[in-house]
Amino acid sequence: MTKNTKGESVTLVGTPCHIIAAEKMDHYPEILGDSPVEFKLGLFCMENFSHSYLKEFLKQENIEIDDVNQFRVEKGHLWAHLKDGDVFKVPLSKAKVCMRKNCQVCMDYTSELADLSVGSVGSAPGWSTVIARTEKGLKTLNKAESKGYIETKPMEQSGIVLLENLANKKKKENKEEIKKRESVARPVLYRRYINDTEFREEVSSCQFNDLKADVVDVGSCVLCGACYYVCPENIISIEDRKPQLKGTCPPDCNLCYVACPRTYLSQEVLHRDLDQKPLGDYLKIVSARADGVDGQDGGVATAILNFILDENTTDEVIVVDKMDDNPWKPEAILTSQVEDVKKAAGTKYSAAPVFKVLKNEDSKKEVS
Ligand code: SF4
Ligand code: SF4
Ligand code: SF4
């Protein structure tokens, strides 16, 4: 695989499905080459919206998306805080028409395969919940605290219970949807039980057309951009809502099918035991806050990223910002600049193909 990152190491900030893609790419270096993602900072995510559907939905309520200052998903509602101070709220059951179909088969609320997971749920206002899952994640959490980037305190038991309940709700509801889809021959491949040996056999002759049939056309694509990134022929485009093929695949290539987080996931990548654990496996869970940093998560994700860049834990980070010329349209950027990280703080609630920036040198910010 050709890597266009000049060998730089990267921290990925992403939704649980992005983190699964990074984990999968890390698991098959002999097929995909070495992954540049060295550190995975996962976010909590209940669902995501299609930017164009959301824009249209708001328009029907006489709201221009440009007039929205902040979106939040809380207490069963989508909240749009408008720039003029008004607040528009709509039950999630109604906003569901804007939800991406892939989110309805997603079983991970807290980024169970991340090094560190961060989200606002479970902690008091102004604080975030941080879950350290790996030794690398725990070390980063402890060092970020000892160097004054964040402060932490033990989680209240009631906060953990709330978080577990929400995670269990997502797993339960979406398991039903998965069953429903499987029963009408609309496969949800990533939920099939398979081991690494079987995985290699299954995917050996699968190419983009199979990816399209098994993932994109059945509403499973999470729009992560992993297929675009690994394609050695550069014949996948991912400009709009789904990846498309723009050329002819050589006979022996299957890289996009291997890398996609919504084709088969072997037990070695994602063990199904995690279905029984609402928050997945972890080493430590705390409440944390970061003084002087804005952001929906209490600024904690931003502060940890600042620490990662200051300490050179990785050379660059991938964060999702909003496009300047298309309000609330998310855009992934690869940067080593703390200011870019601060500017990108806050949840966007729409999907962005985060892996795309690893290949696109033009989208990289200048490093001074
Ligand atoms: S598939 Fe949807 S709900 Fe699941 S992590 Fe991705 S964006 Fe969030
Ligand atoms: S060449 Fe074809 S099969 Fe290979 S990664 Fe690109 S699109 Fe997929
Ligand atoms: S088809 Fe491509 S963009 Fe969609 S989930 Fe798979 S790898 Fe990601």
Secondary-structure blueprint:
Blueprint: E1 10-14, H1 16-27, H2 29-32, E2 37-43, H3 51-60, E3 68-74, E4 77-82, E5 87-91, H4 92-95, E6 116-119, E7 128-132, H5 135-146, E8 151-154, H6 157-183, H7 196-203, H8 208-216, H9 226-230, E9 236-237, E10 244-245, H10 255-259, E11 284-289, H11 300-310, E12 316-322, E13 330-335, H12 338-343
Parallel strand pairs: 1-2, 1-12, 2-6
Antiparallel strand pairs: 3-4, 4-5, 6-7, 7-11, 8-11, 9-10, 12-13
The structure holds iron/sulfur cluster (SF4) (3 copies).
Residues 211, 215-216, 221-227, 243, 259-262, 353 line the site of one iron/sulfur cluster.
Molecular structure report:
The chain is of the alpha+beta class and 368 residues long. It is 31% helix and 18% strand. Mean pLDDT is 89; it is low at 1-5 and 362-368. Bound molecules: iron/sulfur cluster (SF4) (3 copies). One iron/sulfur cluster (SF4) binds at residues 211, 215-216, 221-227, 243, 259-262, 353. It comes from Methanobacterium subterraneum. This is Hydrogenase. Residues 212-241 form the 4Fe-4S ferredoxin-type domain.
